[in-house]
C-alpha cells in the first residue's frame, strides 16, 4: 500500500501564504499603481493599459491557488496582503506612496479580489477608481456604489478604518520605514522641482518644505537608516539624490551642534536648494566648462527668487546657494568683494556638498573617491577650506569608515560598513557586513571576537575590483 501524501499543516500553510504575500504583494502594488497611472494617460483600449491589466490579473490570480479571495488593505501608512505587511524597496516607494495616497482620498481601506475577476473588470475598475469622488466623507460610498452598479463581480471594497495601535517593536520598525519614506519623498519632490524649472514654471515648493520637515523628524529617530540611504548611488536619479544627501548630512551636523527645530528647518531647505542654479545632469569627466561651474551660485540666487512658498527661509537659501563654494579662508568662488565670515549654514553645506559630490561619480565630472579617503582629504584642508569644528562634528557622525565603505577585516574577509560604531571607539569600530564566499553576510559590531582574536579593520578595498555590489548589503540586516 502506498503511503498517504504528506499534507501541509495549518501552520505551514500560513507560512507559505506569508512567503507568497511578501513576494507577490510587492509586485501587485507596483502593477496596480502602474495600471492606474497608465490609464490616466491613455485610452482604456490602449495596448499599454490592456497589458498592464493582464500583468496584474496574473499576479492576483496566483493567490487563488490557496485562497477563495485575497484583499489588499491599507492600515495606517502601510499596505498589507490580508494581514501580511508588504515590504518594499526604495525604488518601489513612488508606486506605494501613490497608491496609499489614492486609497486615502477615497476612504478605501480594503480592495478584495475573488476568482471572478478578469482583465476587462480590472480596466473598468481602475477607470471607476480614478473618476470616483475624493476627499469627502462620502468618497468610499460613491466608489462602492459605482462598482456595484457597473457589473464588476470580481472586486469588492471595504471602508478605511482608523489606524491600529502600535506596540514598541512596531514603533521601531515604523521609525525606520518613516525615514525611508521621508528620504525618498524628498528625492521625488526634487525631481518635481527640476521638471517645473525645466519648462519655465515657477515652482511652489510647499510640498518640498513638508518633506524636509519629515526628514528632520527622522534625523532624530533613525539616523542610521538615513546614512545607509545617503550612501546609495544610482545614475538614473544621481542629482535628486545628491540634493537629498546634502540635506540629510547637513541636518546631522545641525543636530550635533544643537540647532533648534526652527533653524534645522532653515538649514534643511537651504541645503536642499544649494545647487539649484546648476545644470543638474550627470556628466563625464571634464564635460562641464569652468565658467559655467563658477557661475551657478549666482544663477541659484536668481532661481530661488522665482520660487513660490519660500517666505522666511528664502534669505537663508539664497545665501547658501551663493556661498557654498566659498572657503573659510576667503578663497573659492564667487570671489568676494571683501572678506567676511560665511554663514553657519554655508559652512555646513560646504562640507556636506563636497563630501557627497566627490564620493559620487558624475557630480563633479570625475571618478568617485572612496568615502574614507574623501574624509582624509577633507581633514587635510580643515581650517582653510572647511570650518574645523564643523568638520569634526561631521566626522563624528560618519565615522572614520563611513557607511558604504568597502574594507578588509583583520581575519581576511571583505566587509561593507553598514552603520557607525558605538561607544568611545565608535569612529574606528563600525558595524559591518562581513561577506562570505557564497555572497552571504555576517553582521558584526567591531571589535568582534573570532576564535579569541578581536576583529578590526585592516584596510580598504576597491569594490569594483572584487565585483561586489556594496548596496545590497546595506539593508540586509
CATH superfamily of the largest domain: Hypothetical protein af1432
Low-confidence stretches: 1-11, 166-172
User: What is the β-strand count?
Assistant: 12
The fold-level CATH name of the largest domain is Hypothetical protein af1432
Our estimate of the beta-strand percent is 5-15%
Number of domains: 3
Largest sheet: 5 strands, antiparallel
Gist of the model:
By secondary structure, this protein is α+β, with helices and mostly antiparallel strands.
Report on this structure.
The chain has 477 residues and is α+β, with helices and mostly antiparallel strands. The strands form 3 sheets. A 5-stranded antiparallel β-sheet has the order 3-2-1-4-5. Strands 9-8-7-6-12 form a 5-stranded antiparallel β-sheet, with helices on one face. The protein has 3 domains: 10-159, no CATH class; 168-398, Orthogonal Bundle (Hypothetical protein af1432), CATH 1.10.3210; 406-473. It contains 16 helices and 12 strands.
Keywords:
single chain, 477 residues, alpha+beta, Hypothetical protein af1432, 3 domains, 5-stranded antiparallel beta sheet, 16 helices, disordered N terminus
Topology:
Blueprint lengths: L9 H32 L5 H16 L7 E6 L2 E4 L2 E2 L7 H13 L2 E6 L5 H13 L7 H10 L6 E5 L8 H31 L7 H16 L1 H8 L7 H19 L4 H12 L17 H17 L7 H10 L20 H15 L12 H9 L8 H11 L7 E4 L4 E6 L11 E5 L5 E5 L3 E2 L2 E2 L2 E4 L2 H4 L11
Antiparallel strand pairs: 1-2, 1-4, 2-3, 4-5, 6-7, 6-12, 7-8, 8-9, 10-11
Helix pairs in contact: 1-2, 1-3, 1-4, 2-4, 6-7, 6-8, 6-9, 7-9, 7-10, 8-9, 9-10, 9-13, 9-15, 10-12, 11-12, 12-13
Amino acid at each position: 500500500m502506498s503511503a498517504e501524501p504528506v499534507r501541509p499543516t495549518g501552520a505551514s500553510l500560513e507560512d507559505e501564504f506569508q512567503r507568497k504575500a511578501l513576494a507577490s504583494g510587492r509586485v501587485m502594488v507596483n502593477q496596480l499603481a502602474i495600471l492606474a497611472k497608465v490609464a490616466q494617460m491613455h485610452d482604456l483600449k490602449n495596448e499599454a493599459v490592456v497589458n498592464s491589466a493582464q500583468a496584474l490579473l496574473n499576479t492576483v490570480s496566483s493567490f487563488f491557488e490557496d485562497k477563495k479571495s485575497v484583499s489588499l488593505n491599507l492600515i495606517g501608512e502601510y499596505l498589507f496582503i490580508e494581514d501580511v505587511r508588504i515590504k518594499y524597496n526604495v525604488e518601489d516607494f513612488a508606486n506605494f506612496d501613490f497608491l496609499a495616497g489614492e486609497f486615502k482620498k477615497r476612504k478605501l481601506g480594503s480592495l478584495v479580489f475573488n476568482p471572478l475577476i478578469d482583465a476587462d473588470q480590472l480596466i473598468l475598475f481602475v477607470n471607476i477608481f480614478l473618476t470616483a469622488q475624493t476627499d469627502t466623507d462620502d468618497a468610499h460610498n460613491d466608489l462602492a456604489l459605482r462598482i456595484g452598479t457597473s457589473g464588476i463581480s470580481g472586486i469588492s471594497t471595504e471602508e478605511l478604518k482608523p489606524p491600529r495601535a502600535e506596540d514598541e517593536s512596531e514603533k521601531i520598525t515604523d521609525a525606520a520605514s518613516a525615514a525611508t519614506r521621508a528620504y525618498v519623498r524628498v528625492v521625488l519632490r526634487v525631481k518635481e522641482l527640476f521638471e517645473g524649472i525645466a519648462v519655465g514654471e515657477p515652482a511652489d515648493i510647499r510640498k518640498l518644505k513638508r518633506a524636509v520637515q519629515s526628514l528632520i523628524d527622522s534625523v532624530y529617530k533613525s539616523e542610521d537608516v538615513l546614512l545607509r540611504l545617503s550612501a546609495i548611488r544610482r545614475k538614473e536619479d544621481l542629482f535628486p539624490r545628491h540634493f537629498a544627501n546634502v540635506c540629510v548630512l547637513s541636518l546631522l551636523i545641525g543636530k550635533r551642534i544643537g540647532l533648534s527645530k526652527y533653524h534645522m528647518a532653515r538649514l534643511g531647505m537651504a541645503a536642499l536648494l544649494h545647487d539649484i542654479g546648476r545644470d543638474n545632469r550627470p556628466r563625464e569627466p571634464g564635460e562641464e566648462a569652468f565658467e559655467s561651474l563658477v557661475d551657478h551660485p549666482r544663477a541659484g540666487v536668481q532661481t530661488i527668487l522665482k520660487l513660490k512658498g519660500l517666505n522666511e527661509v528664502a534669505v537663508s537659501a539664497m545665501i547658501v546657494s551663493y556661498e557654498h563654494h566659498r572657503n573659510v579662508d576667503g578663497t573659492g568662488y564667487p570671489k568676494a568683494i571683501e572678506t567676511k565670515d560665511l554663514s553657519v549654514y554655508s559652512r555646513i553645506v560646504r562640507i556636506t556638498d563636497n563630501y557627497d559630490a566627490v564620493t559620487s561619480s558624475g557630480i563633479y565630472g570625475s571618478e568617485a573617491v572612496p568615502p574614507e579617503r574623501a574624509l582624509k582629504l577633507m581633514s587635510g584642508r580643515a581650517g582653510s577650506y572647511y570650518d574645523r569644528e564643523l568638520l569634526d562634528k561631521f566626522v563624528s557622525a560618519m565615522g572614520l569608515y563611513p557607511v558604504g565603505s568597502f574594507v578588509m577585516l583583520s581575519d581576511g574577509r571583505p566587509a561593507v560598513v553598514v552603520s557607525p560604531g558605538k561607544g568611545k571607539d565608535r569612529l574606528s569600530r563600525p558595524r559591518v557586513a562581513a561577506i562570505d564566499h557564497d555572497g552571504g553576510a555576517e553582521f558584526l559590531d567591531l571589535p568582534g571576537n573570532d576564535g579569541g582574536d578581536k576583529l578590526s579593520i585592516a584596510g580598504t578595498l576597491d569594490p569594483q575590483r572584487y565585483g561586489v555590489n556594496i548596496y545590497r548589503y546595506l539593508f540586509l540586516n
